[in-house]
Amino acid sequence: MSDTSDTMFRKTFLDVKQASHAPGLLYNDPEVLQQEIEQIFKRDWLYLARAEELPNPGDYKTFRIANEPIILCRDEAGAIRAYANMCLHRGVEIATGEGNATEFTCPYHGWLYNLDGQLMGASYMRDSEGFDRKACRLPELHVGQWGGFIFVTLAKDPVPFATFIKDFDEKFGYLNLETLKIGLRVDSELQCNWKLMVENFVDFYHVGVLHKDSIGRFMKSVDLTYDLRPNGQVFVDEYDAGTLSKTGDLTAKRIAALEGKSPRFSSAGLLTPNLNFFVRPDYVSVYTSWPLGVDRMRMTGTILWSAETIDGPAREPVVSEFKVMLDKVLGEDFAMVESLQNVTRASRFVPGRMSRLEKGVQHFIKHSVERLYGPQAAEAESADRVADPVK
Ligand code: FES
Ligand SMILES: [Fe+2]
Known about the structure:
single chain; alpha+beta; Rieske Iron-sulfur Protein; seven-stranded antiparallel β-sheet; globular
């Protein structure tokens, strides 16, 4: 793989006017997925939950990310903590699902941990020579918080969280996201590579066609201006689109920071590796795409509205209308990305040319490839472009 990576993506990294999509291998090679797990998912900051989902001491949620079990909890002092969800005896997950607990008891042989990850009890271990219960703690993971979003990283020595979130904070910090509340969560397992869904969320080319009966109807133009960052992040600062309701008109109270904006104000961002972010005057939606296998993934969505909407009588009609629309739009997207996955193995499949509307998609692919194979995969292309601009 590595000996050909410099040329494999050559056409993908040309200027978008000359470029073609990525080879199917990027979406169906188990070796690529393994590299992504090691180089991306075990190194990056990953959004796992909102702070409001763990309001009280003892509240916890568990995850399996990149084959790593994680437990996220609020400790007695009210701080959010993250641990490897792995018993120090043989490694069984000490908690599953979510809930509230004063301590965690491993279901296999009963070792007991407090919310600080300290091993508090281990029966029949007195004769185990050199075993020091007090020295046993669950491995702790770094936690970062921004706007009510909790991020965790599996890296021992990660990029500082402030550095990671800087661009996003500059773009979206003014929204005071910590004041918003969850009205809806969605969770879907899809038969496709995780990157296809991340790409789909920055692909505005399809919106007027695939979603012609819903959001496509309300979008004035899909020919948008992209702000592409070297860290792979993609922003569309402002575009004109209706909100996700039957008519495209606002159905809920505006987010306070957007009071002065047009009712059709929209904004979007991609926070690498796997978080897609959309702003409308009345809600913010956040989607994460997680690999379950090279051709399987889980997509989770979290939709936030103002506290007034979520705590008041408007909640039920607003959220239920939104859900009908969202199910329709996502259902349309899911069918496309699963079809794309299928074709990556087809004998006649040749990646086709890109439209200039696919700059965001191209940027994400380029960043992903650079993370796997180093910047030389793209640099080799730049040199080649000068030598032969039509390749
Ligand atoms: S694996 Fe947890 S107590 Fe044995
Ligand atoms: Fe879509």
